[in-house]
């Protein structure tokens, strides 16, 4: 089996690009005689002539053209391997869970920063309900979660506090004594729980007018004028949004704030999850800007 010498392949590519032995040697910092020696040995290893050459020109043969394509791949992969094993940057895969409402923020900018800061890091992104993300984290199916803090759970590092708002289509009219038509998640969620607790505490009647497992579905229901939802004010800034904050005439109770945190499977993170968590801690507060 023929084994190609990497130095000879690099010299071969330099000659192919420069079309001149002396220029190739100058580019590599080696003598012309060494260039000639490398090419002779490579041709002997291949059993083929790689260049047509005379006193003035150096041109690849058909076999040389084929080898040039293969050699670029071989040399490129060798450099990638060298970069990987000499680089101290975190690498590997991080399974990141992000709550649905964070997609309303500048999350894409954060992910772009992750790629620039750690090009060898692979992020497997899961977007969903906070309660389900916590379940996946505790079951070992996620490495890191960036989401709202669950009531009674003190884990995580605080990134941002956000005031929730009652949102509805701008033409929806709701009187102070009317039952509130709610648009909410059908399963347990932090925002839905806060909405129901606030209304129950104020002894305000309510009913489920529309439900969806996704924030996009809730937004569609509210945009259609089906009811009111307790969500981030950022929804009002979404392209094409007709959502507004319900005015005081509806006499809806205040909702308070939610906290966004980043947490991992243990309080002491290491490796790639730790690097990603550090970036979220640093850049996360700017997502709401």
Strand composition percent: 15-25%
Mean pLDDT metric = 88
Q: Remind me, CATH topology of the largest domain?
A: D-Maltodextrin-Binding Protein, domain 2
List the total number of helices. 9
Structural class: alpha/beta
| Backbone shape | elongated
Fourth CATH level, the homologous superfamily of the largest domain:
Periplasmic binding protein-like II
- Strand arrangement in the largest pleated sheet: 4-3-5-12-6
Largest sheet: 5 strands, mixed
Radius of gyration: 30 Å
> Which CATH top level class of the largest domain fits?
Alpha Beta
The poorly predicted ranges are none
Helix share bin: 25-40%
What does this structure look like?
There is one protein chain. The chain is an alpha/beta fold. It has three domains: 81 residues, Winged helix-like DNA-binding domain superfamily/Winged helix DNA-binding domain (Arc Repressor Mutant, subunit A); 101 residues, D-Maltodextrin-Binding Protein, domain 2 (3-Layer(aba) Sandwich), CATH 3.40.190; 91 residues, D-Maltodextrin-Binding Protein, domain 2. It has nine helices and twelve strands. A five-stranded mixed sheet has the order 4-3-5-12-6, with helices on both faces. Helix 1 packs across helix 2, helix 1 packs across helix 3 and helix 1 crosses helix 4. The longest helix is centred in the N-terminal third of the chain and has 25 residues. It is elongated, with a radius of gyration of 30 Å. The two termini are 61 Å apart.
